[in-house]
Amino acid sequence: MDLTEKNVIEHLGELRKRIIITLISFIIFLTVSFIFVKDIHDFLVKDLDDKLAILGPGDILWVYMAIAGFSAITLTIPIAAFQVWLFVKPGLKKEEQRVTLAFIPGIFILFILGIAFGYFLLFPIVLGFLQSLAGNQFETFFTVDKYFRFMINLTLPFGFLFEMPAVFMFLTRLGIINPQKLAKTRKISYFILIVISVFITPPDFISDILVIVPLLLLYEFSITLSKIVYRKKISLDQPSLHAS
């Protein structure tokens, strides 16, 4: 076995270890979340005027598992980010290790902000708008399955989408991307974000706009942060180049 094959096997073994730790963390958080799932459910439906209906005995189990899974994903995010950092750590300089490690709290905070944006701002607006379309012509009631599926589909993607600034900063610090590349791919990125927005929102123009505008602003904010990180990276790399 040559050195290259040995390095590949070692990297795959390390990657496997990080994935296993992340999965174990998710299972632990899933179990804990399921223990408290009724309390989480009560919080999520506290503003509803009417009780949710169930159409079958399996509906409530699915909802409890979905809520517990939602909570477990949220709690696993910082663990997963830390495992990614540990995986790339050997290839980083001391300064890069310190700087990139500082991104992990930001990744978790941005995920929470994305969830909060989806749940507290977007979800009630879209739900209220759709209810207003029914007016007095239809008798509306929500099943527990449809209600939570709609809520999760509208909020969970924002947790990941709001990671964009931290991910761009992290990749810029590693030298994988730079603000020039992000600016050149702006049109393609806009198109992808618009497509994502259309897929995760109900089929109405208002909902699409409420999602598209924040995501495009978030992309521009990510480019700005990437420029700041890129300038700092250049200034830190220049002394080392002169020293060598």
Automatic annotation (TrEMBL):
Membrane topology, from the record: Multi-pass membrane protein
Gene: tatC
Protein task: Part of the twin-arginine translocation (Tat) system that transports large folded proteins containing a characteristic twin-arginine motif in their signal peptide across membranes.
Subcellular localization: Cell membrane; Membrane
The organism of origin for this protein: Metabacillus bambusae
Family annotation (InterPro entries): TatC
Protein name, UniProt field: Sec-independent protein translocase protein TatC
Segments passing through the bilayer: 20-41, 61-88, 100-130, 150-176, 188-206
Subunit structure, interactors included: Forms a complex with TatA.
Annotated keywords: Cell membrane, Membrane, Protein transport, Translocation, Transmembrane, Transmembrane helix, Transport
Similarity field: Belongs to the TatC family.
PANTHER family xrefs: SEC-INDEPENDENT PROTEIN TRANSLOCASE PROTEIN TATC (PTHR30371), SEC-INDEPENDENT PROTEIN TRANSLOCASE PROTEIN TATCD (PTHR30371:SF4)
A Pfam family annotated for this UniProt entry: TatC
